[in-house]
Design goal:
The protein is mainly beta. It has two domains: about 160 residues, Jelly Rolls (Sandwich), CATH 2.60.120; about 100 residues, Elongation Factor Tu (Ef-tu), domain 3, CATH 2.40.30. Helices cover about 5% and strands about 40% of the residues. The strands form three sheets. Strands 1, 9, 12, 13, 14, 15 and 16 form a seven-stranded antiparallel beta sheet that branches. Strands 2, 3, 4, 5, 6, 7 and 8 form a seven-stranded antiparallel beta sheet that branches. Strands 10-11 form a two-stranded antiparallel sheet. The radius of gyration is 20 Å and the shape is globular. The two termini are about 25 Å apart. About 35% of the residues are buried.
Amino acid sequence: MNNLRILHDNAIDRAVLTASGQAGSLGPANMQSDERSAVFRAPGTYAGIDAVWPTQQSIACVALIFTNMTSSARMRVRGYAQPGDTVPVLDTGDFFPCPAAPHGSFPWGTMPLGWNAYHAGGVNTWARGGGAHGITWFSPVRVRRLFVQVAVTQSSGGYLEISRLVAGNYWSPQHNPDYGAGVTPVDTSEAYRTAAGQAKSNVGTKHKILDLNLGFMTEADRAYISRIVDERGTVKPVLASLYPENTNKLKEQAHMLYGRFVNLSAITAPSFSLYSTPLQIESI
């Protein structure tokens, strides 16, 4: 099993983005914004997205954050050392970025066919827990151009929507977080009763919080997490995956989020040459 991965330096923020097409003013530049409601919308169910940099970037992950993709969506990522190259140094081939549970992973009939950990839906559903993330991990490559192809043939709206594009290298600790790490669903809705005693609710929004404790950090891990926390603070988001590339795709999906550190805690030294700190990340 792979250890926790945190992608804290999103190379897309430094890229020039173009797309094969866009609907109205909903262009690819919106995928560089952390405003969830700022979306890129393709005019149909397919989009080819180009990211180009003036210098080479180290890339080991590409993720689409908050999309209307279903479990049948397809994705392909190619990376080129130079923008004019025709032979890629990276080619993932076609794959399912947010796949359903594989056949046989649960007793027959336990899970509906095509079911994954997400509630498929467009931007109008994201405030109440809708939307899906798509991701691919690979060995680090240095590129100046990424070409990402996405197809959502079963989109109910007849188009593709993406809120955020993330690409870059990640940090992974030598020792995994302590037992007890998990994701908490948060619903800000408020329940109340009328004067007649009828139960009602003021509907709020939904988000998730990832709680974990890094209790056995080495000196190198301590230095790296200190830098991540110092650079991102409580303002700039990170991509965190507790079970990256897990064979149980639903487990990976349920424990991956794009969000900000909720609070900044001390890094303590409970024993010689080992360090500890809790992390709490709240999805955007």
